[in-house]
Write a structure and sequence with these properties.
Blueprint (H helix, E strand, L loop, with lengths): L10 E4 L3 E8 L2 E8 L7 H24 L7 E5 L4 E5 L3 E3 H6 L7 H17 L12 E4 L2 E4 L11 H13 L6 E6 L5 E6 L3 E6 L4 E7 L5 E6 L5 E6 L4 E5 L5 E3 L1
Antiparallel strand pairs: 1-2, 2-3, 3-5, 4-5, 6-7, 7-8, 9-10, 10-11, 11-12, 13-14, 14-15, 15-16
Amino acid sequence: MQNPLEGLGVLLFSGAESRIYECLDGAQPALLKHRYSRSYRHPELDGRLRKLRTRAEARCLAKARKAGVRVPEVFKVDEAAGVLVMQKLEGGTLSAAVAAGPENLKPALWREIGETLHALHFKANLTHGDLTTSNFLLCSDGVYVIDFGLGEMRSNAETCAVDLLCFYKAFHTKPVTALAFSPCLRFLASGGVDKLICIWDLHDCRLINKMASHQKPVCHAAFSPDGKHLASAGFDNSVKLWNGYTGGTTKS
């Protein structure tokens, strides 16, 4: 690829390691991701890292696509320049949809997200590395996963758990401080410094409810032995009892 940075369009995003530009691949609208040089790194190390990370991201995208995960198609790769040219997708982020009201998102969407994560981890055997709601695009033909800049060509219990924790944290505005699994392992409750409690259905990767729980951060959460109730405690010295399936308050 000659002069990969020549004639770029609008700069869409600038991050700590890369920038995203609009461009054309022939007559087709595309995006160009450029890993630019960082002056704080030794030039030789910088060049090597940019090359390796560009190669790794291209391989992750190809492997995910082969496994049936919806990801942008890669058109061109220039490892030496740290450049990927890929498909431009039209759609909104999951983070924007959640901000508009997660309770309004259809169960079918959560199921598709769960199936996408399963395919990513167990069919493609990949770890995303930054699985926030901003890296899911809701397009007309389905859910796409984007930005594999921190992706790894391996998947195990630990790396999958880190991906899922990153995903669940996106539904809290501040750090998560409490996690609890139901006895049947189908439901997960998360509490955070943002004073919120979220209840998840892990079968569908679906957010069931998001509740304003305490006046101060949540410090503990636990399900009852039969799973019908969830108890949460806060640093405001309060304890609340919730319906373990729906999140409705029963006692405080």
